[in-house]
Amino acid sequence: MKPLLFIETYGCQMNFADSEILVSLLKDRYDTTDNYADADLILVNTCSIRDHAEQRVLNRLKEFTSLKKKHQGLKVGLVGCMAERLKEQLLESELAIDLVVGPDAYRSLPALLDEVEAGSKGIDVLLSESETYQDIEPVRLGSNKVSAFISIMRGCQNYCAYCVVPYTRGKERSREGQTIVNEARKLFEQGYREVTLLGQNVNSYRAGDLDFAGLMRLVAEIDPALRVRFSTSHPKDLSDSLIEVMAAYPNICKNIHLPVQSGSSAMLAKMKRKYDREWYLERVSALRKRIPDCGISTDIIAGFCGETEQDHEQTLSLMREVGYDFAFMFKYSDRPGTFAHKNYADDVSEEVKLRRLNQIIDLQQQLSHQSNRRDVGKTFEILVEGVSKKDKQRFFGRNSQNKVIVFDNPALPNGEFKVRVGDYVKVEVKECTAATLLGALV
Ligand code: SAH
Ligand code: SF4
Ligand code: F3S
Fold first, then answer.
1. Fewer CB within 10 Å of terminal CB in the chain, N or C?
2. Minimum-distance ligand to the CA of 11?
3. Do strands 206-207 and 153-154 pair parallel, antiparallel, or not at all (unpaired)?
4. Which residues are CB-neighbours of 269 under 8 A, at least 6 positions away?
5. Which of 188, 177, 115 is nearest to 147 (CA)?
6. Which residues, at least 6 apart from 271, have a Cβ–Cβ distance to it below 8 Å?
7. Is the backbone peptide bond immediately before 232 cis, with ω within 30 degrees of 0?
8. Which of 139-143, 157-161, 245-249 comes out lowest in average pLDDT?
9. Among residues 88, 117, 116, 110, which one has the least CA distance to residue 100?
């Protein structure tokens, strides 16, 4: 029997995709376990995007440090963005960490583990300009066998003033198109029905002559029964050709995550987002014109450096104007090393940040509820993804717009269900809350 690996993942979808690569790189040495108390190696795949994300990991590492006292031989490794940002700092702390490996150095894990087993500590935080792990077949860790992530690029060099990602993930680089298409086709053959193409800024994907719209076309043509999603797109690069491809293929989901960050052009300039309010609204209207039913979600930062009450009001008004279906909303968190940290004062008080964030959250709650109410009475095709935790007769899936719809799926007399996970079915929406739609099979 092989020793056991427990991996815990924080942060964005790209980190989840990376954990699947990590497990693949270690599969000859370790089996995985869902219970960290049984593990011989614990890897914590971490995120540095906000201070809060790092604090959560530090607390967790304290827990693992005390576990090591009980469990002789347990090794703990820090991987991902915090490993890259903090480098040897945590190896030298009172936390019992054996291994620190940055996002581009995962191939050196087996060699580093040898060093650790020989009694020393292992560290590799070199960033690469070419590593994409495109030849590694991820071990799928997702909760269903219907939907999978495919990382199509790594890194980011947009250097938004507030953001740590360019420092933790290095230069932008894209995978060869054919490796992506092959991975998606293989997933489809294994029964998967949805792939999400991932990158910090998928619109700037480029491999030789292939751009993102071209790649989407290739993936969409694998099979009409394979849904294609993507995340995240940067508003500055939302091209007409991408909108056209989205409109042209029914299996490309009608949903876009388009982080705006702020509704104030002054703030956007300070954030170095390379677009302004007008540009953003024009892109949204181009999208809506071509794809009227497109779901739109966003990310918003409250209380960035120098944000005035008027700037904040502009964020609220932009939210109303777009009428987002969904949003991730954050308080600005100053990150060491970033342009904002070096050049601006983090001068919006904690109290004001919190109040503005709460106003943003309350407004989004209303907008999400309105968006859901507009769907009551409509019929959607959904891809069934799982069984509701609370009620085994209830299943759920998502529509093209990425909304979750829950529906009754009574067991047949033979004990089987009429509708199975991985099926496409039509449901009519009967009721809603701000968070979910309740439907009935048509
Ligand atoms: N590449 C994506 C964003 C990735 S980070 C894009 O450019 O759209 C995910 C989100 O975290 C960002 O959209 C932003 O809203 C938030 N974020 C990033 N840095 C932050 C910081 N320092 N404080 C608060 N939120 C931050
Ligand atoms: Fe960060 Fe900007 Fe890159 Fe997104 S585009 S990851 S916000 S630097
Ligand atoms: Fe976090 Fe790194 Fe992703 S900082 S958001 S895990 S790229």
1. N
2. 3
3. unpaired
4. 276
5. 188
6. 160, 161, 162, 261, 262, 301, 304, 340
7. yes
8. 139-143
9. 88
Residue 65 has pLDDT above 90, yes or no: yes
DSSP class of residue 107 equals G
Backbone angles phi, psi at 377, to 5 degrees: 95, -15
- Is residue 234 lining ligand 1, measured as CB closer than 6 Å? yes
- Which residue lies with its CA nearest to atom 5 of ligand 3? 12
> 10 Å Cβ neighbour count for 50?
18
- Supply the pLDDT for residue 118: 93
Residue 316 in contact with residue 263, Cβ under 8 Å? yes
| Closest approach atom of ligand 2 to CA 156 | 3
Q: How far is CA 110 from CA 17, 29, 99, 144, 148, in A?
A: 19, 8, 11, 29, 26
Q: Tens of pLDDT along 186-212? A: 999 999 999 999 999 999 999 999 999
Which residues, in sequence order, are CB contacts of 412 under 8 Å at separation 6+? 418
